[in-house]
Design brief:
Order of helices and strands: HHEEEEEEEEEEEEEEHEEEEEEEEEEE
Helix content: under 10%
Largest sheet: 22 strands, antiparallel, barrel
Number of helices: 3
Structural class: mainly beta
Shape: globular
Radius of gyration: 39 Å
């Protein structure tokens, strides 16, 4: 009982002091933190620090705006752990750092199809079409068609041509990474040739000669893709081709037929080392052809090869192929090696150099020859060719969207295929072309640039080259240029409008039948396209703006200036 008054007296004595201390603390700093001498703040580490002149420092850190979360500065310190301190903070109160700005290219909308059709002067149609239709999630069909032609573009002889090809495909993604594709195609072309109505030609035909092409092709492809480095590929296909040269009552005409087939298989897998891959492959091509001038002939080109590819130290990529080929034609049969090697070395992130060396046999089909030179006669035998060569190229990227390149190459070819006009009796008048063969040496240097100075606004590319095409027997290869240039420019002043121009230059070429050279020519072309909306656009283009008279093959003048106008429909 006697201690109770003493206790209350003690509390009453201290109460004014406690009240005065609270009032002083609240009034001075407006905080509930206890008064702490800044000189006695302990940095929780293995040492103590003193800060002269420091009046007050928050205990929990120096950054007034922490990046991860905010903590009430008036909380009672050192009561809860760090995890407990932020456990009740709302997620919306967390102050996260701003993420970096991301510039992602938008994927363009898939076009299910388009039709691009135009009509030009001299009744010249130009049509391109493409279609895609998904049957379900794993299969689809595709198709495309291209046609161009002209009528009456030359004065004097009849002048008309048409090139038409169409293809349809089926794609099916099977189970376990299997993929099946089927492609079918057809072509139907014709071309009026130069006028052979000449009284000096034996067997005068009295009309302009013409030539027709027709053909069908098909290919079945089966793939097993485990990943980008492991899988196999099997392809089987063939084509049928026929061409007819109508030269009236003369003996210059005739018909040529060809049936060809091909079979190939490849299997590829990763090696034991990083960025190392192997590939084994086999390829078989064979054809039978005949004409009115000779009985049927056969040719075979078979190859087995192993390919090795590896990236060393992220700076040097080597791709090497070793193969053995067996080839037979109407004249000879041989077994030949077919090695190839390519080395790409990146000196830095902007500059790279590439070196190649190869030895490979090849044999072009009759269809390839006739489509390249539409003035061929119908009595050509096929020979294999064997190329041995090397090349080097340098690529420099000055900045994004820019590439400058240049290089040189040398190739020696055994049985190089070139074209030469036959000479008709009795007055040595040039007739149609024939495929000739001879050893050749071709040296070439080139340089060019690809530019996109303003992304999606202005882009351009150009390439210039100089060649020395020589036959080992002497003289230049007929109808092959020594100097050439090609380039194009596109400009988009607004999103809907695209302006473009493209050009081609071919230097002089030897024409041995006439003992002269075909003159050089430069073709300047231009076009414009306006996109009315997402589905419809209109365009115009001009070919051979300067109206040059030129010949690609001696004896036949090509088209003069033409202007086209058309429409584009996107589905």
């Amino acid at each position: 009982m006697s201690k109770t008054p003493t206790f209350f007296l003690f509390i009453a004595f201290l109460l004014p002091a406690i009240t005065f201390a609270q009032n002083r603390q609240t009034g001075a700093d407006n905080t509930l933190l206890p008064e702490i001498n800044p000189q006695d703040i302990e940095i929780r580490s293995e040492f103590k620090a003193r800060f002269p002149g420091l009046r007050r420092q928050p205990i929990l850190g120096f950054n007034p705006k922490p990046r991860v979360f905010q903590i009430d500065p008036n909380r009672i310190p050192f009561i809860e752990t760090r995890e407990e301190a932020v456990a009740d903070i709302s997620v919306t109160q967390l102050g996260r750092p701003e993420p970096p700005t991301r510039n992602i290219l938008q994927d363009p909308d898939r076009m299910n199809g388009y039709i691009r059709a135009a009509l030009g002067s001299f009744v010249s149609p130009d049509v391109n079409a493409y279609g895609y239709y998904a049957l379900d999630e794993s299969s689809a069909v595709t198709g495309n068609m291209n046609m161009r032609g002209s009528t009456g573009h030359l004065d004097g002889p009849e002048s008309s041509f048409r090139y038409l090809d169409a293809n349809i495909g089926y794609i099916n993604k099977l189970q376990n990474g299997m993929r099946l594709s089927l492609d079918l195609g057809a072509l139907s072309d014709f071309n009026d040739l130069y006028d052979l109505n000449d009284p000096n030609i034996q067997g005068q035909i009295g009309e302009t000669a013409s030539k027709d092409y027709s053909g069908f092709n098909g290919q079945l492809r089966l793939q097993k893709i485990k990943n980008t480095l492991n899988g196999w590929d099997l392809t089987v296909g063939g084509n049928v081709f026929s061409t007819t040269l109508d030269a009236g009552s003369s003996t210059l005409g005739g018909e040529t037929d060809e049936t060809a087939g091909h079979l190939s298989f490849s299997y590829y897998w990763p090696g034991q080392k990083m960025y190392e891959t192997f590939k084994v492959s086999g390829n078989l091509e064979s054809a039978t052809y005949s004409s009115d001038a000779f009985d049927s002939e056969n040719w075979v080109n078979a190859e087995a090869a192993v390919t090795y590819e590896r990236l060393f130290d992220f700076s040097t990529r080597i791709k090497a192929k070793g193969g053995v080929s067996y080839i037979t034609d109407a004249v000879d049969s041989k077994v030949m090696l077919s090695p190839e090697i390519e080395i790409i070395h990146y000196l830095n992130e902007r500059l790279s150099v590439t070196g190649t060396a190869f030895g490979r046999p090849e044999l072009n089909t009759l269809q390839e020859h006739h489509q390249y030179n539409r003035f061929l006669s119908a009595d050509n035998l096929l020979r294999y060719s064997y190329d041995v060569g090397a090349g080097a190229e340098a690529n420099l990227q000055l900045f994004g969207g820019n590439r400058v390149f240049g290089g040189a190459s040398y190739t020696h070819t055994q049985n190089y295929a070139y074209y030469q006009r036959s000479i008709l009796a009795p007055n040595d008048t040039p007739g149609f072309y024939s495929v000739m063969y001879g050893d050749a040496n071709i040296f070439e240097i080139y340089a060019g640039a690809n530019q996109q100075l303003v992304p999606e606004k202005f882009w351009a590319n150009a390439k210039v080259y100089a060649r020395s095409p020589k036959l080992s027997a002497g003289g230049d290869i007929p109808y092959e240029e020594k100097l050439g240039l090609e380039g194009s420019i596109s400009f988009k002043p607004v999103k809907e409008l695209t302006l473009n121009a493209w050009a081609e230059y071919l230097g002089k070429r030897r024409s041995p039948e006439t003992g002269t050279e075909l003159k050089a020519f430069a073709l300047l072309n231009a076009g414009a396209e306006y996109q009315v909306n997402d589905k419809i656009g209109v365009f115009a283009k001009m070919l051979n703006v300067s109206g040059q008279e030129y010949e690609v093959w001696s004896g036949y003048q090509e088209r003069p200036f033409q202007i086209f106008g058309g429409i584009t429909i996107k589905l």
